[in-house]
Amino acid sequence: MSKKLPNIDSEISNWYTDVVTKAGLADYGPVKGTMVIKPYGFQLWENVKDVFDGMIKKTGHVNAYFPLLIPKSFLAKEAEHVDGFAKECAVVTHTRLKSENDEIVVDPDSRLEEEVIIRPTSETVIWSMYKKWIQSYRDLPILINQWANVVRWEMRTRLFLRTTEFLWQEGHTAHKTKEEAQKETLDILDLYKRLAEEYLAIPVYTGLKTDAEKFAGADKTYCIEAMMLDKRALQAGTSHNLGQNFAKAFDVKFQTEDNNEEYVWATSWGISTRLIGAVILAHGDKNGLRIPPKIAPIQTVLIPIFRNTEQRELVEKYITSIEIELKQLGIRYFIDWSDSSPGFKFNEWELKGVPVRMEIGPRDVESNKLVIARRDNSEKLSISRDEIRDSLKTILDEIQNNLFNQAKVFRNENTHNVENYNDFKEIIKQGGFVKCGWDGSQKTELKIKEETKATIRCIPFDEKPEGLTCVYSGELAKHEVIYAKAY
Amino acid sequence: MSKKLPNIDSEISNWYTDVVTKAGLADYGPVKGTMVIKPYGFQLWENVKDVFDGMIKKTGHVNAYFPLLIPKSFLAKEAEHVDGFAKECAVVTHTRLKSENDEIVVDPDSRLEEEVIIRPTSETVIWSMYKKWIQSYRDLPILINQWANVVRWEMRTRLFLRTTEFLWQEGHTAHKTKEEAQKETLDILDLYKRLAEEYLAIPVYTGLKTDAEKFAGADKTYCIEAMMLDKRALQAGTSHNLGQNFAKAFDVKFQTEDNNEEYVWATSWGISTRLIGAVILAHGDKNGLRIPPKIAPIQTVLIPIFRNTEQRELVEKYITSIEIELKQLGIRYFIDWSDSSPGFKFNEWELKGVPVRMEIGPRDVESNKLVIARRDNSEKLSISRDEIRDSLKTILDEIQNNLFNQAKVFRNENTHNVENYNDFKEIIKQGGFVKCGWDGSQKTELKIKEETKATIRCIPFDEKPEGLTCVYSGELAKHEVIYAKAY
Lengths: 487, 487
What we know:
Two copies of one chain form a homodimer.
Chain A: H1 12-22, E1 26-28, E2 35-37, H2 39-58, E3 62-63, E4 69-71, H3 72-75, H4 79-85, E5 91-94, E6 97-100, E7 103-106, E8 111-118, H5 123-133, E9 142-151, E10 165-175, H6 178-199, E11 204-208, E12 220-227, E13 233-243, H7 245-249, E14 253-255, E15 261-263, E16 265-272, H8 274-283, E17 300-304, H9 309-329, E18 333-335, H10 342-351, E19 356-360, H11 362-366, E20 369-374, E21 380-384, H12 388-413, E22 415-417, H13 421-430, E23 433-438, H14 442-452, E24 455-460, E25 479-484
Parallel strand pairs in A: 3-9, 17-18, 17-19, 22-23
Antiparallel strand pairs in A: 1-2, 4-8, 5-8, 6-7, 9-10, 10-16, 11-12, 11-24, 12-13, 13-16, 14-15, 19-20, 20-21, 23-25, 24-25
Helix pairs in contact in A: 2-6
């Protein structure tokens, strides 16, 4: 645990893997590309989940659960959708194992008539059900979400950021009108932005994906895009206006109020355990994680300091009285009574990114004080015992805000307005986001990707294309876009 | 919705399926044996989940998440385990689809070197990780739980009770000593009993499974067994003492405090969405569900009654004031403003099993009253508006207790002490639980199963085998057991 982490500036990829595993967030699973989310990491995910679950329930959404297994034929019903997912599908073909020459083999007699796939996303199975559930305008809107696991057989995987199986929420809504679906798509994007900024303390750009980058089967994909510490972009959530594509693929029509028949309008939207990766890569430092207090599994850790039994008893009694107060305040805390030295514990809990450390020794007990160390800026202050009630929540709020502001300053400093392709290439090479004009052609978009590996992260809502020229073709810009290399 | 349900006494199987689908709890999925849990059913599951999640967290357990996909070879490592699960495994063999002659087919080039299976339960994958995580006694105990989906390819399925995929929690703990593992096994069983009795309002018998009925890979399996309305048994939860079986299969040893090496001791335990089936079949009546208030998605439904706009406005204003109070009381409520007639709504919410219905019409507004109808016993009473605060929680508690007491009386009346095989067969034929002596031989157990389809549900903790003879062989009884036909 006390071994040094790889350098966060020069070796961020190794730093990342080390932090994830050493801080006890996750571990590799036995099947290639799978991940075990360890208790500390899972608690972090549960906190994120609880926040967002509350947000969507408050806005009239309900949870449900659809099957993991989807008939192979379903995927084919929406042409773009199957193109997008066919190459990464886990396919179930048999349903029994048997013993043969002391080995366990697949029983060939158990072959399925139609193979089934493990859901890479659930539009198809859900719209096959909506077909049964929707007849009339009275059945609309349907505002369903599910928390589930999905499998995409990825070639190159990375804990949290890209794993063969991941956990997510996927919302799937059905509406009477195009306008209502569009409003839902944007309302959810706004919740994603609030989740990222107010809870994960990660500022995000919001906007529209280009056709080349949109979800396979969507009319329009909107996204939140965050900047990581290596100045690369991370797509942190997407909200899709699916138009009538899946309604047409599954023949889902409804009777309108004026007795006509129309295809249903749809949206889908998702955030995943990838967000944990975003938190790590947005806030980490050379000593490890820095977790925003609002989602931290442990908001404050108490480190007792003593040299002998007498001191220990003194400290323990004092801590017990503090504990009562922490409980009343609703603080998520942990008291580290393990055998390690205080120094070892300091390092360990810094690595784990706990926002506030309380150090409590015999001298603190005597003077009715304690030492508070902030993880975000390493500040130490001695406060009186009676100040906990008033100060602790304020300090946690300050840490939350400070992490957000640091990330925002960093992002803004590394987002550059660029007018020519040489500057563009230089910034992409050095790292950073580029704001520039784009002529709107897919050819230009692909050329730039080929030459620089940068992609259009989004066409921001507040784009100002007027007077811009395309950074690549020099033609009049159709859009102002944000370019970056992405995770 | 107003169509009559099948007779609950003579056609309980049809009644069950009708209630599940018409009350909006669940629907069939497209792949055989899979289930869609609809919002109303899922909310019920979420409530059960929240209660139990709180219980295990309070007792020091933490949640984590292990992969869905398990290498085929893992299953083979524990001999009994593979025997138990080999015949119902979903096997993933390929990872890509492709287009061929306008059809979507499995890409033969994407065949996996080693097939993977979808977890039917997670002992093997979890113990492969514990192997990495456990070195010393300091790493113990591990008290991990996960909420997950599992797949068992069942031949005969039934919504909630037996589905190809189901949702559950599976606890997997690791301990230093045999005694500690045994204590954990029983502590959890006690939580299961509390969950069933105090929240689901279902009385349960608790005890030990026979070797023939225990979990594949366990030393001992303990269970909670409930009686359904057709007097058949439903296994509602199991807690396993796994001994050192999985530690040996995955070679997981730890260094003891006195510097020896020993295999780790283990438990596992689970409850699933099957519990929703238990709630339906323990409390239902001819009009549909009766959901215990503590877990009901909607605890009280408000039905406005009016004939014209003027009356509607009057009623609406009155209801708004009641709503404020329900919110303050923390009651889960729903106001049904839909276009249907009050009579239709009464039937619909009875079918859905909402514990309390409030009827509010213009005369109630004038007299500052409202009508309360209890779902459990069909009692109607008129209470004054001001009584809500004091009465509603009491009424909900009464309903909760009444449902439990009714189920307990029913179970006790239908549990019979039996001394000879003729009586045994008669009761099993008529329906009911039999308490009797058993000589302890597996031969006897299998013979009885063959001849009557009844199985030993458990050897109850409070068995009194002294002086009993085996109901089948006439030999001295080794155990007193509970026999029944089971779901």
